[in-house]
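Re: that chain you flagged

S.,

Sorry for the slow reply, it's been a week of failed gels. I finally had a moment to sit down with the sequence you sent. For the record, here it is as I used it:
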Amino acid sequence: MRAVKSGIDIERILFRGFCVTFFLIPLGTSPFLIAGFLTLAVWLCSGRFLIESRSWLKMPWVAPLLAFAALHWIGLLYTADLAAGLGFASKTHYWLFAFAIASIPFARYSPKAFLDSFLAGLSLAAVLHIAINAGAVNAPQKYAASFINPITYIMLLTFGVLILSFYFGKSNSPNRKILYGAGIALYLASISLFTGAPGRTALLTLVLSTPLIVYNLLGQRSLPKVFGAAALALALLFTTPVVRSSVSDAAAQVKAYYGGSPDSSVGLRLHMWNGAVRIFMDNPVMGVGTGGYQMAMAEYATPQLAPGTVLVQPHNSFLYMAVSFGAAGLLSLAWLLIQFIRAGWSHMDHITGFSILAFGVVVLSASLTDTQIIQVHTGMLFAMLTGLQTALGRTEEMEVTNEDKRVYVHTKCA
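Prediction finished late last night. Pasting the structure tokens below so you have them in one place:
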């Protein structure tokens, strides 16, 4: 009896620890990592990683995850830069969080609490971000951009907009619709403060996410209507001065790159992508190994690059896997993403499934301009949401809604 009680206590600690971790994701790096690794330590030291292993080892996400992680260690055997390779390979520890999350008994603990914790932290970050930029709150200059990497922060805001759009579409309460709409406006306002490279990343991520957002906000199930409304929303977006300026600036940087001057945000990316394609074409089977991109890229360097410019990775998740591990790397990433998005798509009428689908769309679009799969916030959130797929295979997901004082029991079968 005591062992059972102890097990339940550990489960509660894990659940609350991950709630805190989700809350802290948008608010910085150190607090988020401390909460995450303390929770992970509880999982390891308590033996839950052994007790619950039988329940998640057979899950469909385990095989692509292990293949993806294994390639990073295999790639150390033939990389020309072992020191850099070890740095990249060590990032695979993020995926331990998938197994730790999967160990939580979701028949008793709602995965929705993780998402609501994330939204609470994101809302606090957005309010502080806007207040700092407006001069209402004094803070160090580095926080005027955001509390974390701006591009990652914009990804999280877009993910938040998607989650709130789901809540908006499912709600029957006018007051709650106003609340969710205000949250969406808050996140978009925070995004609008970014210009330059972060703003362009936001634009791409929002463009690719717009059909899903419109799908929820309008409550439409007709794809022609959804895409028609999304096209109209995007047309209006492109009429705003900020967006037009960002697009014009990007076009100028593309022109400068092809004119022989790659030293700009867009120019450097084009230079890195072009070099990555050439490296992959020269090493299509195995790539250049984990962390080998920087040395391989040196032969493509040009005099126009600013002194001290270091090209460690190609700022594209797909090219990163292709140059590092060849065709096997591309296939492993595709396998991981397809399985992730399919799981969300199959359960998109429930908040857990929709959030997995939404993050899949966000990380896929943002991976076109940066290597999001190895960034700390994105990588760990990706891992935790991967483990959250286990909740989709439980026989019962209980969700309490206060809108009309009823309890809904949503039954799902694996």
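What I noticed first: Residues 2-150+237-389 form one domain.

Talk soon,
D.
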